[in-house]
């Protein structure tokens, strides 16, 4: 009999983070694991001994399939950073005490950079106390900013939603025969993988966004206004995609240009506005044309109704591969995706030393950003397009996609 | 041989306005109409003699099916209000001159209140000059505010998108084990049909929004803060749906509460903020909890990737019924939908005098709003739920829904 498994989810939700959970669960059960525990709200919940037995929730393959179609983190999440063991050994004592009680031998954590930091610290601590519990990281983040892996599960689905929504918004912006600007504000504060995905909307039936502003480059306000003015001479409807993290050369975010001391309501509350709203207001004031900012907001990370099948399958795969690797003896590693062929697209999994991944951030390579500074190259598109392919039809009930919720806390 | 047809689209786009266009086109061709013209940018384009021959664009049933899956107004739109004929007969002369040149006998206009005003004026003018061109209105608006008809095509799809997105946002809001408020800001300035649709998200797998604020009722700021405070005592994650048009008892919109003289950036530009942002800022300042406003924005009216099949079919139906009625001799009428059975849901079409519809606005009946003032009743849900049923699978090409664009202006 193989020892018990515990799995947790951490950081921001994605449309496919639960497919990785399904991959861990299904593979563990297929390999003969007796019990698979799910920690509620990640490591923070584990410290409070909050967990569920997944066998009680995933009673048939129907629930597993529903789980793959459920967005956000089924088990709940946290943003808890483990202290260094030398500063606070009590936290580690508590964690290992709970794991011992549950007879856990394999620990999986689905998340991004911070979560990999957790795996790194726990595996080091285990080695230091001679514990043979194995700790494995399962990559997840819509931002696609993890090092070593070709891409991260979660990115493809967010990219598909962004590209699909951009297509619809471009069509929407074309209806009136008058000058107008639409600004689509996209997540990704420091890296532009998601913003660049808006360019995937370009095709026979869509021109794509007219300009793309990535956080990898400094944003020049005068240059932006000039380029927009030139564009508006040749086309009435202009659509641009911006990262929420666009910033000036001096490092200030565009959304910080507002004088916050003035920026209050009648009750003295400070009002915040995003970069898109800032630019829309500036353009409508200076150019006198209609300008609208649309923040895709958290919808882009939880839109499982338009998830990518490639992404869902790869999310499941990295979860399953983590279980296989751990049972084969690995610990302190993260599963990565390696692209072994671009045409046709093929990716396989591998394991990678977590020390070389945690707390790093992968930006778009300079060569994948257009020389004009407002586009992405074909290399970027060839990289991203395979990741948005295919759909997994939601289970529709009474007109809406059905989700799986765990029985303790129906919502 | 039946005389030629011309069809136009007007007002804001919807996910299914093109299905009505397909219904007009397909029915006209089936009935033996030789030519079906499409006016570009509605009546405004017609005045400039901008139109296309739909036979050149819809060459096979594949294009017709693609048109049904294409959001926004395929022919472009306008917000042009016809002057009264006694004030400006030149405009009418021009229109009838173009129609005569094109040998048009049937004129169809797909739109909302303002578009029905256009049909009313044109049919009256035709009668006054002894023209036998027939003018018919085809209802369209996501707002669902047209009188006489049970509901308007466009509403069901927007409602489905709103309910589906609300479900995903509620799941997203639940991941962290900490106090937070999510405000979903929904279209519909004067009527709450769309905002109420957020309640359709409630079911076995979702609690639905905790409070709903409709524009039919005055918004009381103190009462809102009190209710929120009470809610936050029993649950950490609160999600509310508000109409973009919520207003105080004195008529001021909530988004107008900002002192705009103070509300400028470093360059002196006035900054605007929506009602959702206003409330989120107020709550986070006064209650010290995380609060986020999410504007569904124009995405909700153009999200054809999650359109309702019932809505698409009814949009097609009202287009076709307008053609049948016009050929049968009707003019100056709008097609309406009549619900003849609720369980099972059945709707049929009828014709209705446009003078009794144009320029009126249908609000939610008082009895369909909960006595607590922050919910909708089961009557509302029973009314709206049949309208979001079913899906029409998009034609997916390279990972994204394919749209139809007309050949003159590829976009």
From TrEMBL, chains A, B:
Reactions accelerated catalytically: beta-D-fructose 6-phosphate + diphosphate = beta-D-fructose 1,6-bisphosphate + phosphate + H(+)
Residues annotated as binding Mg(2+): 113
Keywords: Cytoplasm, Glycolysis, Kinase, Magnesium, Metal-binding, Transferase
Active site: 143 (proton acceptor)
Magnesium listed as a keyword: yes
Listed pathway(s): Carbohydrate degradation; glycolysis; D-glyceraldehyde 3-phosphate and glycerone phosphate from D-glucose: step 3/4
Principal cellular location given in the protein's record: cytoplasm
An annotated Gene Ontology molecular function: diphosphate-fructose-6-phosphate 1-phosphotransferase activity
Binding site for diphosphate: 12
EC number: 2.7.1.90
Gene3D superfamilies (alphabetical): 3.40.50.450, Phosphofructokinase domain (3.40.50.460)
Names of the cofactor(s): Mg(2+)
A Pfam family assignment: PFK
Example of a GO biological process term: fructose 6-phosphate metabolic process
Location within or outside the cell: Cytoplasm
Subunit structure: Homodimer.
Family the UniProt entry places it in: Belongs to the phosphofructokinase type A (PFKA) family. PPi-dependent PFK group II subfamily. Clade 'B2' sub-subfamily.
Role: Catalyzes the phosphorylation of D-fructose 6-phosphate, the first committing step of glycolysis. Uses inorganic phosphate (PPi) as phosphoryl donor instead of ATP like common ATP-dependent phosphofructokinases (ATP-PFKs), which renders the reaction reversible, and can thus function both in glycolysis and gluconeogenesis. Consistently, PPi-PFK can replace the enzymes of both the forward (ATP-PFK) and reverse (fructose-bisphosphatase (FBPase)) reactions.
PANTHER family listed in its UniProt record: ATP-DEPENDENT 6-PHOSPHOFRUCTOKINASE 1
Name of this chain's protein: Pyrophosphate--fructose 6-phosphate 1-phosphotransferase
Taxonomic path: Bacteria, Bacillati, Bacillota, Clostridia, Lachnospirales
Designated gene of the protein: pfp
